[in-house]
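Z., the sequence and structure:
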Amino acid sequence: MLVSGVRWKDYVILREALDTPSLKMTYLEGDLELMSPSGANEKHKKIIARLVETYAYLLRLPFNGYGSTTFRKEAKKRGVEPDECWVLGRTLDEGDYPDIVLEVIETAPLLDKLRVYDGLAIPEVWLFEEGRFTIHHRRKKGGYEQAGKSALLPELDFSLLARLVEIEDQQAALEELTRRVKAAAKPRAKKRR
């Protein structure tokens, strides 16, 4: 559902009053999108988070996840709860924003999420739709450009990740990722000797 003409303070009051995981709100310059995540959305976001966090763990990357935390900026008239979000090499302090956000798209959003994230200056947005990822890097002057890989996790294979997301048995998907990461790490370890 999309509601237009919503004042910032009304959005904040609604977000606080209706703070439940079954309702996601996106606010963009007076427009408020209310969405209830589907079972497919929740399944996909959860396995993607598990895979990405396992990948970071296996490579010993300083990677911290913050789920679908609400991020707002009154001056830019924006508010959003990503499906998942992460920071690399730091923790997320109050009033801070993530380095990477994930949006799983099962039904077409009513608001342009990239415009929302641009106003919050999120460096990287990952969209998962129809079984594939698109990666968007924020330009220095604003706006996003689509990229072939992550700037923050450049070795992460999104084609492999998309295939693993579709495996019904999440444990099997995690085990396959672990095998692939360890196999890729062996040649690197030999070169260092």
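The chain has five helices and eleven strands. Residues 30 and 181 are 45 Å apart (CA to CA).

Let me know what you think.
H.
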